[in-house]
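Q: Given only this backbone (251 positions), what sequence would you predict?
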């Protein structure tokens, strides 16, 4: 049986205030195995080395726990907290969030059905509860009453530039909820166009958390965007338009 050294993983998580149980570690290893297996016959991730997957996918996904609003909302424990991960791909950040924060009600959304099939296998094998992988485009799903303005949090990583992304994500968020965007250090270039789009869609940047992945020189940002007003009904525009004609203009 293969041995995986997870000591570093636990230490890196502690940097964010997260303490992983043995059961959670076991689920991450199983997830890594499935990722490697499926990656051999379909395109899921370019990162395959165990330690690299831990840092750049697992730890990176969990970095959201640094955001006070996320931590505070989760720790209330009184109500069900809903979260949608738009363009989840192989499940980042949604699956790591589910493994660690079991009480979250999670929807994983992706426009590529092959990836959704992979996610359904992960959900089944890891015996994850209150999480569903769905196939579709954000532009279509956000118009459906079961999804529009229904979520406490929308998260998204590596899907589009901020101007396009806000049109895909903000419509899902309840008034006073948050869209939290995982971005690289280059986010500043996207801010001005992104803010224009946010103004139209009812969101406002409340904070930008800049940090480095633990024990590395990899810089990341989390954009905390609060939904202050309902999104006008005409958004999102039809599938493909938010990318072709971003609301804040092209950068
Ligand atoms: N979030 C994952 C990560 O960080 O590894 C995946 C990133 S991958 C580069 C982008 C994913 O977004 C792809 O799986 C793609 O199918 C999905 N995607 C792109 N546009 C989308 C849309 N309009 N609606 C839903 N999913 C979309």
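A: Predicted residues:
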């Amino acid at each position: 049986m293969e041995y995986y050294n997870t000591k570093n993983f636990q230490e890196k998580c502690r940097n964010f205030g997260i303490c992983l149980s043995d059961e959670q570690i076991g689920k991450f290893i199983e997830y890594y195995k499935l990722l490697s297996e499926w990656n051999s016959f379909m395109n899921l991730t370019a990162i395959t080395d165990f330690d690299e997957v831990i840092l750049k996918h697992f730890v990176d996904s969990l970095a959201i726990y640094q955001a006070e609003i996320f931590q505070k909302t989760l720790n209330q424990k009184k109500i069900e907290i809903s979260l949608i991960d738009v363009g989840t791909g192989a499940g980042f950040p949604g699956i790591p969030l589910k493994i660690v924060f079991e009480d979250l009600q999670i929807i994983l959304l992706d426009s590529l059905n092959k990836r959704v099939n992979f996610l359904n296998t992960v959900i089944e094998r890891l015996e994850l509860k209150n999480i569903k992988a769905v196939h579709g485009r954000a532009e279509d799903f956000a118009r459906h009453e079961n999804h529009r303005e229904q979520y406490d949090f929308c998260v998204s990583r590596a899907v589009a530039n901020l101007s396009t992304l806000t049109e895909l994500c903000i419509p899902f968020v309840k008034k006073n909820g948050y869209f939290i965007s995982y971005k690289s250090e280059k986010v500043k270039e996207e801010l001005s166009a992104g803010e224009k789009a946010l103004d139209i869609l009812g969101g406002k940047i409340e904070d930008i958390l800049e940090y480095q992945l633990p024990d590395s020189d990899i810089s990341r940002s989390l954009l905390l965007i609060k939904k202050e007003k309902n999104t006008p009904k005409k958004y999102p525009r039809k599938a493909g338009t938010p990318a072709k004609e971003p609301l804040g203009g092209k950068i």
